Fold this protein.
Amino acid sequence: MLKVTATMGANVPLREIIPHAKRVESLGYDTLSVAEAVHDGMLSSMAALGATSTLRVSQGVLVAFARSPMLAAQGAWDLQDYSGGRFQLGLGTQVKGNIIGRFGMPWSAPAARLTDYVGAVRACFDTFQNNAPLDFESESYRLNRMQPFFNPGPLECGAPSILMGAVGPLMTRAVGKVGDALQTHPTNSEARYLREVTRPRLEEGTREAGRNLRIELTAGPMIATGANAKEVEAEMQAAREALVFTLSTPAYWPALEYHGWRDVGEKLRQYTREGKWAEMNDLVTDEILRTFVPAGTYDEIAEILLEEYDDVAERILFPVPKDPKNDAASRAVIEKLQGG
């Protein structure tokens, strides 16, 4: 059995989030993952929560290093209160160039700093919920001042859980140390890789931190599906183009390296430098595509996903149909995944 998460495009403006969230809820999804890229993630999450009544909204993911931990904690607390407990705070690092050049904020070792950041947010949550003195100090953050006037006070539904994004070993172990949940990147969501690499790293992190829990894992593979073989093939080709772009970046090579295809990543990177755009698609072979992209019609895909992911993940991203004519078929897939 898998809970099912929907996504939405990074370019969706606030005015279009409301109908999208309502449609996602009507299709039976458990969660909507709201990106932060073009628009403010907190505002987008609020729009989605206000338009729905049962749907969980997960921030996937908020750019942590562009905000103070207190601002992230306050925003998450408000959204948790506003929704009656349906918000999940997702936190990620972004890349060095964007943090410095786009946000004008300092950069430091990301895994260690995000670990500190989550600790600071949890300290804020503890102060809000239990009126504990705010006293958090780490290499990256120091918070020690909270006058009663600024404390929003406890919530009946409790603090939101914290999801983290991770690809490499250090960040994955960091999720095990301080997070509640992990959402994987499409380039590193292949089921065997999650089973043999990601899960053990999460467990290493929980053991190191003395935590006795299983981290909730949301698998985020690109999924090629549709009403017929023609639609599936079109989605496969779209996935190939997306993989060509993302796998040209070394940060997304872990699963590629695990399967012995590092040379493909190196060639993709070199081709981008040489401007050989037309030749890049050929580097992502059908074998790589089949490994990274589960594929099948709506009648087939639920069984394929359950066979691959049911033992390693608690949740899975499943695409919202581009054409509403496929909504009924998609709803049936979601029900099968949830019923396992």
Remarks:
- The chain is about 50% helix and 15% strand.
- The chain has a mean pLDDT of 96.
- Residues 3-228+293-339 form a domain with the TIM Barrel fold (CATH 3.20.20.30).
- The two ends are 4 Å apart (CA to CA).
